[in-house]
Design a protein that fits this description.
alpha/beta, 271 residues, five-stranded mixed beta sheet, D-Maltodextrin-Binding Protein, domain 2, 2 domains
């Protein structure tokens, strides 16, 4: 080695090694935490677990809500009891729209829904849907005992509030024991609706919110036959978007949300 050659000190070697790393980190911060230059950070969508009776109205609510507060993922519809179990299992929902007050209240007690966030948002009601083939035979719930009515679909009362309401109505009318052998349990109230529309059942007890535009006959059911269908919601505790969830809930319970719910057969929970 010549006299003019100097060995780099260990300190200078470390400094030279660090310099590219420091520059890389700085550029990454300027460009959005390591993302592509000029691209905004990804905003996670709000995720909603929704009772099946909202299958027609919730898309309208989301359309009116728009992207004013960030994206909203396509809702997950199902029987409220099944959705509650998914939340217990860690499903990444932010808002739970139930078909009753009991399930969000239970989740609140378990610490899985934000304390104080459980609130009613609508009052629903039961309707009797009758397939066209037997429509002439059925003008009231008591006509379900006629021989022409062989299969009656209701949502599974174990997991679906509207299924429980359907059973309550049949029991109150003194018909459950007579009709029990004809009952076809469905996974949700929307599936009970489809059973009739597709010809797999002769009649079904379903939510009023689903029957608009149905090909089948629609028959009123006396609301005195079942407990009031007060529907409640809650904000999921593990949500990382609590403020956005609260603003969405405020919209649902606000004037615009109430008007859209009313257009689909719901009334105010205080009615």
């Amino acid at each position: 080695m010549s006299r003019g050659t100097r060995l780099a000190s260990p300190r200078s070697l470390v400094d030279r090694t660090r310099l590219p790393l420091v520059l890389c980190v700085a550029l990454g911060l300027l460009c959005g935490c390591g993302g592509e230059p000029g691209r905004a950070p990804v905003v996670e969508p709000l995720r909603i677990a929704s009772a099946a009776d909202l299958q027609h109205v919730l898309p309208k609510l989301l359309e009116a809500y728009g992207d004013r507060d960030g994206p909203v993922a396509p809702p997950t519809f199902g029987a409220s009891g099944q959705l509650a179990e998914q939340i217990r299992g860690g499903a990444p929902f932010d808002v739970f729209l139930s078909a009753d007050m009991i399930l969000p209240g239970a989740l609140e007690t378990e610490g899985l829904v934000v304390a104080g966030s459980v609130t009613p948002y609508a009052r629903g009601s039961l309707m009797l849907l009758v397939h066209p083939d037997v429509a002439a035979e059925v003008a009231s719930i008591s006509d379900l005992t006629k021989p022409a009515v062989r299969k009656i679909a209701i949502a599974n009362p174990q997991v679906a509030p509207y299924g429980k309401a359907a059973r309550d109505a049949l029991e109150s009318a003194g018909l459950w024991t007579t009709l029990e052998a004809r009952i076809v349990p469905a996974g949700s109230v929307s599936q009970a609706f489809l059973h009739v529309e597709e010809g797999n059942a002769d009649a079904a007890l379903v939510s009023r919110s689903l029957v608009a535009g149905a090909a089948s006959r629609i028959v009123e059911i006396d609301p005195a036959l079942y407990p009031p269908r007060i529907q409640g919601l809650g904000i999921v505790s593990r949500s990382g978007k609590l403020d956005r969830a609260r603003r969405f809930v405020d919209f649902i319970k606000g004037v615009d949300g109430g008007r859209i719910l009313g257009d689909h057969g719901f009334t105010s929970p205080g009615d």
